[in-house]
Amino acid sequence: MVNATTGAVTKTYSNIPSNSVVKDISTDDTGFYTGHEGSGGGVFDGRIGLRLSDFTEKWRDRCLGATQYVLPYEGVLYSSSHGHDCSTELEFPDGKRNFLLAQPTNHEGAAPAPVDGFVRGPGKLGWHPTANDGIGEGIGPRVMSVAEKNDVKYMWVGGEFTLINGKAQQGLTRFASTGDVGAPTTPVASASSVKPGEAQVRWRTSYDADDSKLTYRIYRNGSATPAATVTASSLEWERPQASWNDTTVKAGQSYTYRVTATDAAGNTSALSATTSVTVPTSVQSYPNQVRTDGADLYWRYDDAVSPYVADSSVSGNRSGIQVNAPALKQSPGAVSGSTAMGFNGTSQQVHSDRRQTVGNFTIETWFKTNTTRGGKLIGFGNNTTRNSGSFDRQIYMTNTGRLVFGVHNGSTRTVSTGLFETYNDNKWHHVVGTQGPSGITLYVDGQNKGSLNATSTAAYAGYWHVGGDNLSGWPTRPTSNFFAGQLDETAVYPSALTQAQVKNHFDLAKAPTDTVSAVKTTEDTYVNQGAPSTTYGTSTSLAVRGSGSLYESYLRFNLPAAPSGQVLKSASLQIKTTTQTGAGTADTVKVVPVTGNWTGAGTAFNSKPTLGTTPLGSIAGVPDGSAVHNVELDTTALSAVLGSSYSLGLTSTGTDPLWIWSSEATAAEGTPQLVLTFGAK
Q1: Which residues are CB-neighbours of 640 under 8 A, at least 6 positions away?
Q2: Are 490 and 467 in contact (CB under 8 A)?
Q3: Which pLDDT belongs to residue 516?
Q4: What's the DSSP call for residue 83?
Q5: DSSP-assigned letters across all residues of 270-303
Q6: What is the pLDDT of residues 480-505, one digit of tens each?
């Protein structure tokens, strides 16, 4: 810094490495900003924000990938670079190049505490045009400027590129302020419930190239009105899970959910695929205890689609990303009612979607394998799809099937099972590693296998990995970094579990849990008093009305027998009203047994079957609008007919008709079904 009049030096900055040069300086009323480029070890390639009042440093963004230009504009610092590693900023690891970035000129609220003598830069914003290296030096964009014409503002970008947002555009491009018209990506949703009265709906946050903060709407049972609205932030390289707990659900009933994402301009994604959940009639012991004991990452591997792995923890924001398509829905899992994930031992893994730092911890997973090449079951590392350069807090298997748990705190510290204690016997086993004030401990199948006075670990930010990552330099290193076998019920805790807690988890996994069967109709129809000879066996809808022109509907189900040692604990009929105007009813609709014979093709009003007089259940005041509804049924009556073909009738005494989808309809969740919950006697 020099005096503008005399040229005298007023301030120098000795904390910029000598192998880095200043490529650009820009200023506005929020401060002045520098962009840097360097080469060699210890390079500084990022940006610095400085105060105009005394020229001191506000923050330093140490992302790697030479910054060519900085442009502060309306509170945002835009920059051109080829940023490829923002690990120091707790953002993306070394990998893909990001050529155009944006971040606030100042921290929102209090700035974070200094790290290595520097205050970390403000986090990146959701403005993310894509470019490429170009055809010369491979640097990318080099200059930026804002101009205005006819009230439209244009950001011009020039430099070394041949593609912008995937389209041919060489050397010069512009971005206009004429409005955001791109919708966010469609959320990937799932739902689960481990106890009566609560269902967790969760989804991987969407990506939008123009916005980091998105609004999500959750729709239940096909309703057009959202049951909840949630706001969450995401970036291309960080799309953590968002979640919402539905506390209005009833035990034994089934619910469906869909989610949309909307950006600040009002652009809305498509509805997510429908996800469904049945609320148990009693607490599911194992998953409920994992949540109660404080897991802040809990992957149950019940996912049906790639590449998202749902987080079932209470906080519900540490989802995982599948790499190279591990096998889904492997059954049976380690815990009754849950499936596992299969790994090939050569390239497949799951990593967490949010970079974090770790202090005291517990890692826990179930595994089943017969591999003789070993591999990593679970661990922490500073990269995602590339081999991590920093890695520890890990459990791995040797070629002979022994288990090793360890940390790195200047040297590698490990605990392992005995020479003849091997676990590659193709049976499910439970393994836990903890670190706390007393050091590290390894548990297998509820038993303490050894401890070590290692109370610290290397300090770095990273991601949790399951199924593979670097093992270079660790003792009895196996042939493969990757695990071949099945994994289930992976959990991470921010503290060391006690031996009693670990043993309790192992024991609870053997406890019986409820099972749920969703039984769709095999045949359905309705009759119409106004057309007494007409059959409706191929109609896409069913009708119920008591007077005027009577309608009755009939549903046939093939009921399963109760599983061995279990009884029917709850039952409900799930139906969905159609999209026609007035599909709901103000009247009471009863569900009764059908005592006469009938077929869809041959049943008309003149030949309708006899209905029982004792209702199995009823529903009153179904609102208009296409939505799913549940009718709780008499479990005693249904228990007596399990294992048989059984028919139900829908009848009413009122004048307001109910219209619902039949099994012939293609509407999502439209087919009538029974939801049966079986549990221990």
Answers
A1: none
A2: no
A3: 86
A4: E
A5: PPPPPEEEE--SS--HHHHHHHHTT-SEEE----
A6: 999 999 999 999 999 999 999 999 99
